[in-house]
Amino acid sequence: xxxxxxxxxxxxxxxxxxxxxxxxxxxxxxxxxxxxxxxxxxxxxxxxxxxxxxxxxxxxxxxxxxxxxxxxxxxxxxxxxxxxxxxxxxxxxxxxxxxxxxxxxxxxxxxxxxxxxxxxxxxxxxxxxxxxxxxxxxxxxxxxxxxxxxxxxxxxxxxxxxxxxxxxxxxxxxxxxxxxxxxxxxxxxxxxxxxxxxxxxxxxxxxxxxxxxxxxxxxxxxxxxxxxxxxxxxxxxxxxxxxxxxxxxxxxxxxxxxxxxxxxxxxxxxxxxxxxxxxxxxxxxxxxxxxxxxxxxxxxxxxxxxxxxxxxxxxxxxxxxxxxxxxxxxxxxxxxxxxxxxxxxxxxxxxxxxxxxxxxxxxxxxxxxxxxxxxxxxxxxxxxxxxxxxxxxxxxxxxxxxxxxxxxxxxxxxxxxxxxxxxxxxxxxxxxxxxxxxxxxxxxxxxxxxxxxxxxxxxxxxxxxxxxxxxxxxxxxxxxxxxxxxxxxxxxxxxxxxxxxxxxxxxxxxxxxxxxxxxxxxxxxxxxxxxxxxxxxxxxxxxxxxxxxxxxxxxxxxxxxxxxxxxxxxxxxxxxxxxxxxxxxxxxxxxxxxxxxxxxxxxxxxxxxxxxxxxxxxxxxxxxxxxxxxxxxxxxxxxxxxxxxxxxxxxxxxxxxxxxxxxxxxxxxxxxxxxxxxxxxxxxxxxxxxxxxxxxxxxxxxxxxxxxxxxxxxxxxxxxxxxxxxxxxxxxxxxxxxxxxxxxxxxxxxxxxxxxxxxxxxxxxxxxxxxxxxxxxxxxxxxxxxxxxxxxxxxxxxxxxxxxxxxxx
Length: 809
Ligand SMILES: Nc1ncnc2c1ncn2[C@@H]1O[C@H](COP(=O)(O)OP(=O)(O)OP(=O)(O)O)[C@@H](O)[C@H]1O
Ligand SMILES: [Zn+2]
Ligand SMILES: [Zn+2]
Hints:
- The protein is an alpha/beta fold.
- It has 7 domains: 4-112, GIY-YIG endonuclease (3-Layer(aba) Sandwich), CATH 3.40.1440; 114-170, no CATH class; 176-251; 265-402 and 419-453, P-loop containing nucleotide triphosphate hydrolases (Rossmann fold, 3-Layer(aba) Sandwich); 465-506 and 582-703, P-loop containing nucleotide triphosphate hydrolases (Rossmann fold); 511-566, no CATH class; 714-803, Alpha-Beta Plaits (2-Layer Sandwich), CATH 3.30.70.
- Helix content is 32%, strand content 23%.
- Strands 14-15-13-16-17-12-18 form a 7-stranded parallel β-sheet, sandwiched between helices. A 6-stranded parallel β-sheet has the order 19-29-28-20-27-26, sandwiched between helices.
- The longest helix has 18 residues, at 725-742.
- Residues 515, 517-518, 520, 555, 557-558, 560 line the site of one zinc ion.
- Zn(2+) 1 binds at residues 515, 518, 555, 558.
């Protein structure tokens, strides 16, 4: 009788995208469980790879030639049944590899590192032993890989059977430990030791009584020293006498659990809800109590108290002994929002964001997995947090495109939230001041339940918005980032000791070098895109591939010295502002000033403490911030995103303007907003000015219907890339043919066309966009296309399929 296991191996190719059957050796039979990591031989047998157990059969009579599992890497499953099922669904629906989907759900540390080593198995000549192997009997192949001479020597030795290539799988998932103290004697024995002590051995006596108080426990030495008041030396004596042992104890690398929260008493209690909030909370509570997997769309204007609704719903789930998951966009995952949740729920909260080190993330993940954390706040990938018994799932700012992952697996957190809501019988709350058209349309159809918060807290008015046409400004005064109105208002705030926020819209925007004589624009040698000037490093950088070069002094095309810098970066705006209002204190927030860990929080804290008058920043300041003293918001360039070749560009502009306007006048001081633009008549700007989401929704829906775009149609993008442009184009022509032959006539197929940024990282990109309402043959056709194009021999053409793409650039 042999037990068999189905394993997904860590070899992401189309051929290996299904479970392989392995034999479970008898010694592992009692231990192995679904969801554990294993090491298995793969291919020619020498190679060892990591894999995941996705199925276990009852022991059957089997005596074929199946390979056996080499080792188990876990004592407990690292992926539970719910998430395992989800991983399969995810792979199918996003056209991704199953193993990539599993890894997406797990902390990086659980991805074992495979190294190729060369091992000496027979005597080799002295030169090889010393020069290549440095006297050892094995060698990490990666260290010599780039030296063709050494490689060819090793290959020769392999032929002579003197060395062997092996794969070693090393588990990186090491919990962090510290020194712990553990009594080695029982109470009586310690008592005995005490009576035989010298009468002046006070410290030792105290140690013995302390040990008696922790029998059967392990205590961190630092804690033991603190509690007992004894020195490290005394504990060492205890070790020598055999009273105690020093053993490793696990500690969490969780940065915030030790850190004390600011003492902000009134925030720690639930606020008294206003009527609108109460209605929303009641509806959500009902669904939590009844374990209904309903989807709510909580549409509330900025400052209407959506966050308080989330917090009270989370409290309800916890009261029912369930857990809660709250997602916020990475960019607004600031201490402000995290602290609001932590003040309410304390150490039950785990936080997952991209600023954590791999170790910290692994430890937060384990706190969740062990049920120690019941509330998770995090960015996109936190949707896979291993919480059990979910009682509620919340997506704040549900319209944010960053909830869609733009690399494989190309999932949208909203879809995963709905899947997990169903699987846990828990409601999902999608919150936004400006819901995505897709969600709002579903709410209108009754698929989602709409909950409205129409007013700001205490009926405070939304700030009035003034639109300033920059065209006459520039004509009269020359190039400037600041209109007279905006300057006057900024100065006025300074006098009144109030604060302002300035947004520089960076979407679709860059600061480039152009020659005034010949018009040459400095472009990246690898990508079809202009290089961006970075004043801090004094270089030109490509934002796609990372290429970097010095700022040129002469035009590389015609040699002219008239090469100038165009466009506006935050640094340049800051310089101009310093000149125009010299006594204003400015904090600049952009990718450059927030790159260092903790800077984001630090700058926001400084602004919150009024150490600056003006917060100047990019999109990262537009969302979720709540500063009571901010009474003026200025948008320097509202329209840079409007010209992009993307059907969502108006929606994004409207969202951004509404969000950032909402930062003004949130407390008792009245706020106002100035929007500078070259397109004052564009409907997205006009309707944002009027705070009229409803009218924007109607007008945008009409346009989408006319052009057959979402939410009327679903879209899928297929992309092929190759270093040779004609190969990419030819692949796409073939794919197009296959689509036309197989899909329903009602489905619209656009392209193939070169992508808007046609060349990136030395590869040419072609795309096809499919628009469909319902097409039963679509899924299987796409799966087949993927199979065909990814099969061996054609690996140099990369084909990807992106369901519901958020960008078409
Ligand atoms: N019921 C309430 N009573 C008093 N104050 C409240 C109440 N609900 C929320 N607040 C306060 O009102 C302010 C705005 O609320 P909150 O930040 O939750 O709004 P929001 O809708 O999430 O805002 P945004 O979408 O603009 O980020 C906060 O300072 C919050 O503490
Ligand atoms: Zn030139
Ligand atoms: Zn580049």
